[in-house]
Amino acid sequence: MIKIDKKTILFGFLSTVTASMLMVSSAKADNFYDTRPTNETSKLQAYLKFTKIVSLIEEQYVDDLNTSDIIDKALKGLLSNLDAHSSFMDAKESKELEVQTNGEFGGLGISVGMKDGALTVIAPIEGTPADKAGMKANDIILKINDEATIGMTIDKAVSLMRGKPGTPIKLTVIRKGAMKPLIINIIRDIIEIQSVYAKTIGDDILYLRITSFDQKVVSSMKKAIKKHPKAKGIILDLRNNPGGLLNQAIGVVDMFVDHGIIVSQKGRVASENIVYNARKRGSDTKTPLVVLVNDGSASASEIVSGSLQDNKRAIIVGQKTFGKGSVQVVMPIGNNEALRLTIARYYLPSGRTIQAVGVTPDIEVSYGEIKKADEIISIKEKDLRKHLQSELEKVNGIKKIKKDKKNKKIITEEQIYKDLQLKSAVDILKALIISNKK
């Protein structure tokens, strides 16, 4: 077997490219005195600069590096400087991505992204170790165990946070409003997510909470709606939903919109320019709809809320969303290596982009709790007996009330008053229901 040095191949290839480009540049020289740079000469200069730097590193860098190592490092730097979601993955990282996508692994249950150069929590997924430990949207992860995240890629951070179920991990977090960094200890676990939770508010409101857009979201939502035929209005809660599958986001919008554009994607390559349109079949265009979002709503959540907003099908309530609206594909490049590359951006029906902008709610409401004033007993003498009778009934009914509070399928008034955004959504939806009747 003949073994050929990678360095020889690289410099041989670049020499051939250089010679070819010199010939092309010479052939295109219409005027001897025309010194304006052409695309070919610019490329030539760039290739020459790259090969010179590679050669210098290989010859003089303090540690011994071969050409393959240098090229891999250069590719990682190149991709990470394009945007926060593009990356070069070596064989090990490609295998880890495959495990993450198809296998079973121990994790924390948070979605992360780069925001202003910092590793930022998009949202903890409900019911996961990160959620139970108290992680919040927009937490900045400063350290993973004892390793600083400054300059770290998302892939590297995700790799460090994954691990064997039952093993501990320590995150050092910066949180808005906190006087100093927080230390959050989490035990990794197998991440099992229920993507759709259905509850009722009163007799006529259906509350649907989507934690992430997995492959069962649309079917789960349809089942929930079918089980509550008396619902006169729907609240769709997408707060702290980091996104997921595009087809499920499109399917959710398609449930409530019967014509027009749902979302489109545009890239440099014509084949990536795709428009997704709504279909008339089975769409509910009448039931009043309110969507809850916050700064932890990202990607597919932003497509759903933004599209329903542009189609004037729902009132969006809450806080401005995260702003992640780009499309990535994974391209194998041989030797079990791969390239994750941003190839397009999503655009809402109005033509606006989501990327780095997010979706601004129709009605902005901060998260908080509504303080209720203590009830004052104000009765007249003629009502005294009746009032005391009703108070006795309340005492006798205490056990029943407590039992109702334990019903996880019902959102109580007490729970609503502890969530200002939800309270606002309920009030708006009730107004829409009344308007719909008229």
Description:
- With 438 residues, the chain is α+β, with helices and mostly antiparallel strands.
- It has 3 domains: 6-22 and 36-65; 91-190, Roll (Pdz3 Domain), CATH 2.30.42.10; 196-364, 2-enoyl-CoA Hydratase, Chain A, domain 1, CATH 3.90.226.10.
- It has helices at residues 6-27, 39-60, 67-80, 91-102, 129-133, 154-161, 217-227, 246-254, 300-310, 384-396, 398-405, 413-417, 420-437, and strands at residues 87-89, 106-107, 110-115, 118-124, 140-144, 147-148, 168-174, 182-187, 189-190, 196-201, 205-210, 233-237, 261-267, 274-277, 289-293, 315-318, 326-334, 337-347, 363-364.
- A 6-stranded mixed sheet has the order 10-11-12-15-16-19, sandwiched between helices.
- Strand 13 and strand 14 form a beta hairpin.
- Helix 1 runs antiparallel to helix 2 (39-60) and helix 8 runs parallel beside helix 9.
- 30% of the residues are buried.
